[in-house]
């Protein structure tokens, strides 16, 4: 998974993947976030933060807390941006240095072992004007969901408010999707692939729509 992610971006980035199996390893500032959460949520959060710290370590950064922002986004050390996701047995993080980056990146993971739930909510994921064919079966519905999740992670912090599925209009490309936000003049290019039974969506924000 890490190798495929690195191949999809031309900028200096680091990524890491963790197996979700224990809730240890959280720093005190992070433990506060999931102190009252169920065990499943704690182990997912812990694996995501562990992956994020390993990715930052590859960029030369020391181990440090990665707090949670008001929209649920990870708060990265000064000079860095990135994204965390988890589903099924894996958590993954991708990190880039803002000062050398031409793009902002976000990642989303979907366990491909059961895609029925995405088919059942596909009508909620599609935006007005999108053809039902863009999510015409469980797999395509999951691909659309993951692509829009990656886009939401990029757009919402910049808008300083949560941007929902209905605000994102997707069009298929040969390697994924191009997603346009109706709330702002931003476009997200999403590359999709599958690795170890996980559908991976990599969102790339690098220019306004039409630029």
Write structural notes for this entry.
The chain has 211 residues and is α+β, with helices and mostly antiparallel strands. The chain has 6 helices and 8 strands; from the N terminus they run αβααβββαααββββ. The strands form 2 sheets. It has a 5-stranded antiparallel β-sheet, covered by helices on one side. It has a 3-stranded antiparallel β-sheet with strand order 1-3-2. β5 (168-173) and β6 (176-181) form a beta hairpin. The mean pLDDT is 90.
Features:
single chain, five-stranded antiparallel β-sheet, three-stranded antiparallel β-sheet, 211 residues, 8 strands, alpha+beta
Tell me, rounded to a whole number, the average pLDDT. 90
Task: Give the CA-based shape.
Answer: globular
Helix-strand category = alpha+beta
Q: Please tell me how large the radius of gyration is.
A: 16 Å
Strand order of the largest sheet: 4-8-7-6-5
E-strand count: 8
Low-confidence stretches: none
Report on the biggest sheet. Answer: 5 strands, antiparallel
- Separation of the first and last Cα atoms: 31 Å
- The ordered H/E elements are HEHHEEEHHHEEEE
Secondary structure: elements and pairs:
Layout lengths: L1 H6 L5 E7 L8 H4 L7 H20 L21 E8 L2 E8 L6 E8 L4 H5 L1 H4 L12 H22 L8 E6 L2 E6 L4 E10 L2 E11 L3
Antiparallel strand pairs: 1-3, 2-3, 4-8, 5-6, 6-7, 7-8
């Amino acid at each position: 998974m890490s190798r495929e992610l690195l191949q999809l971006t031309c900028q200096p980035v680091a990524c890491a993947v963790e197996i979700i199996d224990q809730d240890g390893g959280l720093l005190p500032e992070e433990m506060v976030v999931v102190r009252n959460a169920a065990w499943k949520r704690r182990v997912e959060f812990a694996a995501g933060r562990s992956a994020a710290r390993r990715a930052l370590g590859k960029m030369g950064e020391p181990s440090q807390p990665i707090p949670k922002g008001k929209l649920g986004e990870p708060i990265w050390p000064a000079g860095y941006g990135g994204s965390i996701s988890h589903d099924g047995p894996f958590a993954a993080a991708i990190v880039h240095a803002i000062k050398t980056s031409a793009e902002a990146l976000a990642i989303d993971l979907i366990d491909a072992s059961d895609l029925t739930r995405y088919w059942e909510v596909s009508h909620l994921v599609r935006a007005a004007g999108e053809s039902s064919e863009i999510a015409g079966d469980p797999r395509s519905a999951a691909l659309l969901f993951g692509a829009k999740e990656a886009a939401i992670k990029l757009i919402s912090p910049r808008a300083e408010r949560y941007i929902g599925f209905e605000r994102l209009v997707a069009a298929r490309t040969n390697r994924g999707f191009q997603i346009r936000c109706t709330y702002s003049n931003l476009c997200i290019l999403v590359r999709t692939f599958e690795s170890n039974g996980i559908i991976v969506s990599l969102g790339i924000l690098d220019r306004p729509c039409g630029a």
